[in-house]
Write a structure and sequence with these properties.
Elements: H1 2-18, E1 21-27, E2 39-44, H2 57-64, E3 70-74, H3 84-93, E4 99-102, H4 105-110, H5 113-119, E5 125-127, E6 131-137, E7 140-147, H6 150-153, H7 160-174, E8 181-186, H8 192-195, E9 202-205, E10 222-223, E11 227-228, E12 235-239, E13 242-246, E14 264-270
Parallel strand pairs: 1-14, 2-3, 3-4, 4-5, 7-8, 8-9, 9-13
Antiparallel strand pairs: 2-14, 6-7, 10-11, 12-13
Length: 271
């Protein structure tokens, strides 16, 4: 009888950690580009080597149903040394459309990214290590810039000056070659005020896991590098010319459970 009474709770916890929700954000193009084609971006973040269905079948079906032009991965695909589920995901996702990926703090912590990168050879995956790549659609150029997590830059505390220095260098190299639309992929959302200092129209981030536990009317209870009752855990935030969209992520890391916080795929339509 005691075990039976626990079944609803166990079912709720299972669904809370395995049902994939989809959040959709629609953003306008720049005003002087009225004839620009619509772009569909699917953002994936913080998989943490979790498996959704046999060989990621559930996750891939969800993404395919959204018909993306490109997939943006904002870090923490892996969690510790194993990376089998993350590699399967990227191999299958790259068959749908081009995939652009940046490294999060767990790619650094795992210490085996070189082996993971080797596993992905032959896939249509663009790994952006403080570099940019252009995506063309109907003659319109979307520039996608990838920023390494501060752990790859040499710091995990007081890292804003180092991130600023890195972004300064990236933007300076691009100064003579502007694109029609600028997208930044960065794992950490708490640096939003810094990102708005640069010519990025859209910033995609993860890392915060939606605040892990999300009681009603909150943005979650805790996020790494933000502490208790964090500000940047999910959704869209706009300041000046820049919109930052934060994914709640798909997997878990040091704490294995989510509460009122379904795993999330984000779809962004720029039209």
């Amino acid at each position: 009888m005691y075990l039976l009474s626990l079944l609803p709770l166990l079912f709720f916890m299972y669904v809370s950690n395995n049902y994939i929700s989809v959040s959709v954000h629609k953003l306008p193009h720049k005003k002087h580009k009225k004839s620009a084609p619509a772009l569909s971006v699917v953002q994936i973040s913080d998989l943490h080597n979790k498996n959704f269905g046999r060989r990621q079948s559930y996750l891939i079906r969800k993404i395919a149903s959204l018909h993306p032009d490109l997939i943006a991965v904002t870090g923490d695909l892996v969690d510790g040394a194993p990376f089998a589920h993350a590699a399967v995901f990227l191999k299958k996702a790259s068959r749908l459309c081009p995939v652009y990926i940046v490294r999060g703090n767990h790619e650094s912590l795992a210490g085996n990214f070189a082996a993971f990168e080797q596993e992905l050879k032959g896939c249509q995956v663009h790994l952006l290590k403080n570099t940019s790549a252009d995506f063309q659609k109907n003659g319109y150029t979307y520039r996608i810039t990838g920023l390494d997590d501060p752990r790859f830059l040499g710091k995990d505390k007081n890292y804003m000056p180092l991130v600023k220095q890195t972004l300064d260098k990236i933007v300076r190299q691009q100064k003579k070659d502007r694109a029609d639309y600028e997208i930044l992929l960065s794992h950490r959302p708490e640096l939003f005020s810094l990102y708005t200092s640069y010519p990025f129209d859209l910033v995609l981030c993860g890392h915060a896991h939606g605040g892990q536990f999300r009681p009603p009317f909150t943005d979650g209870l805790y996020a790494p590098n933000q502490g208790i009752f964090p500000k940047y855990t999910s959704g869209a935030h706009t300041k000046n010319h820049t919109t930052e969209i934060i994914s709640r992520g798909l997997g878990n890391s040091s704490f294995p459970l989510r509460l009122f916080n379904f795993p999330e795929i984000v779809k962004i339509v720029i039209k």
